[in-house]
Every structure is written in structure tokens, then in C-alpha cells.
């Protein structure tokens, strides 16, 4: 009782804010307010047959993916963009973990967890990782692993070159930027396994395509991809 009163008092002076809308969080709410959780632009792609999934079509003829998944739609200047900005540039790694747990629980309830053996995030180059302090895709992967009760392996892939940002590049430029910069750290760890590769945002899919191709070449049985949000091309 005293702890609750103290928390309420502290909340009046230093209110915790929803990371999507910046309104104060109520008791029992974490990271996202109830209103934003209800109104975020969910894709529900995991409820569609793979051949009817518009996200999967982005990989047709490029990478054989079993599932192409995205929790949210990226809307410029909207709640999702604000969430991703907090995750990538404001040190709020818990945003990625929390969204991963929510999405992972949905995927588990839909029976999709049984289609994966291992979750692998898109890696950052060591220089960028040192500057940011964490990998936002790995935070999402950790949350997904908790929600789906599956293992995650943040070190399974290695980025060998510190590429420029993908923002403002077209598809060909994005592909050229990442086509040869990923390596499998330990091929024996992914041999014959069904891999879910995850990133924060999917636009053209070039980064996830490059990672998936490397994993398949190293002996993965199959590859699926997932992102926090997908943007229109």
C-alpha cells in the first residue's frame, strides 16, 4: 500500500509517458497507454495464408521465405514512427522488447511459434553497436523469444562492414549497400534449423533478404522474416 502511494506521488512529479503519444501512463500501464495499444496500426499479416500476404510478395523471386511478418504499419509522423525513434535514437531499448513480447504472444497464440527453431536479429556493425549501446533489432528479438518461448541468438550473424544508413536509398542502392556485409558466425548452430530473422523496420526488404540468403547458404532449413513495422515502398 505504501509503495503504491509512493509510486503515485512520484508519478505526479515525474510522470511516465507513453512512448507513442507522450501522454502520462496510468497505474498498470507500461511503455504504451491503453489507447495507443488499441489504436496502433496492426497488420495482422500472421492471420493471412502465406500466398495472400502482401509483405511476402516483396520477396517473391528474391528469397524463399516461409512467413513474412510485421507487427505494425509504418505511418510517417504517426505513433509508430515516434516509437521507432525512441527505440533507435533515445536509448529506449525496452520499446523493442515490449513490442516483441506483445507480438510474440500473438504469434504463439496463432500457432506460428511451432514453425521456428531460432530467432536471429539483423546485426549492427561493432562500431555502430558501441555508439548506440545496444542493437534495436536484438531487443525486438529478445521480446519475441519471450513471447513465443523460443531461443534467440543475437550473435549468430555478424556484420563485416559499417554501411551507410539505408534511409533515402532506392531498392537497388539498398541491396548494393548490404549485399555482401553479413556472415554466419557459427554455421553448425543454424544447420537444418528454421530461422526467423528480425529487424526493426522493413521497407524494400533488402537487409532481411541479404541476411536470409546468407543463412540459407550456410545450411538453414528455411527462413522467415519479421519486423516491428513495415513501410510502403
TrEMBL record:
Every Phosphoribosyltransferase domain range: 139-229
InterPro entries found in the cross-reference section: ComF/GntX_DNA_util-trans, PRTase-like, PRTase_dom
Similarity annotation: Belongs to the ComF/GntX family.
Listed name of the protein: ComF family protein
Organism annotation: Hymenobacter mellowenesis
Lineage: Bacteria, Pseudomonadati, Bacteroidota, Cytophagia, Cytophagales
Amino acid at each position: 500500500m505504501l509503495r503504491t502511494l509512493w509510486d503515485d506521488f512520484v508519478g505526479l512529479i515525474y510522470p511516465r509517458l507513453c512512448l507513442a503519444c507522450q501522454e502520462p501512463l496510468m497505474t498498470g500501464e507500461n511503455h504504451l497507454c491503453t489507447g495507443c495499444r488499441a489504436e496502433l496500426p496492426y497488420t495482422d499479416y500472421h492471420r493471412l495464408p502465406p500466398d495472400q500476404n502482401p509483405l511476402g510478395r516483396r520477396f517473391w523471386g528474391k528469397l524463399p521465405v516461409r512467413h513474412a511478418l510485421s507487427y505494425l504499419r509504418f505511418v510517417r509522423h504517426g505513433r509508430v514512427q515516434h516509437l521507432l525513434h525512441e527505440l533507435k535514437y533515445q536509448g529506449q531499448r525496452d520499446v523493442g522488447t515490449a513490442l516483441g513480447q506483445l507480438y510474440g504472444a500473438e504469434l504463439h497464440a496463432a500457432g506460428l511459434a511451432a514453425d521456428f527453431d531460432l530467432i536471429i536479429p539483423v546485426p549492427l556493425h561493432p562500431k555502430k553497436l558501441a555508439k548506440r549501446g545496444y542493437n534495436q533489432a536484438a531487443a525486438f528479438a529478445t521480446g519475441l523469444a519471450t513471447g513465443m518461448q523460443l531461443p534467440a541468438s543475437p550473435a549468430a550473424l555478424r556484420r563485416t562492414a559499417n554501411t551507410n544508413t539505408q534511409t533515402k536509398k532506392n531498392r537497388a542502392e539498398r541491396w548494393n549497400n548490404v549485399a555482401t556485409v553479413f556472415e554466419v558466425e557459427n554455421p553448425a548452430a543454424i544447420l537444418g534449423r528454421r530461422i526467423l530473422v528480425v529487424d526493426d523496420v522493413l521497407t524494400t526488404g533488402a537487409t532481411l533478404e541479404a541476411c536470409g540468403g546468407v543463412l540459407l547458404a550456410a545450411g538453414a532449413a528455411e527462413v522467415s522474416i519479421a519486423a516491428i513495422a513495415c513501410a510502403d515502398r
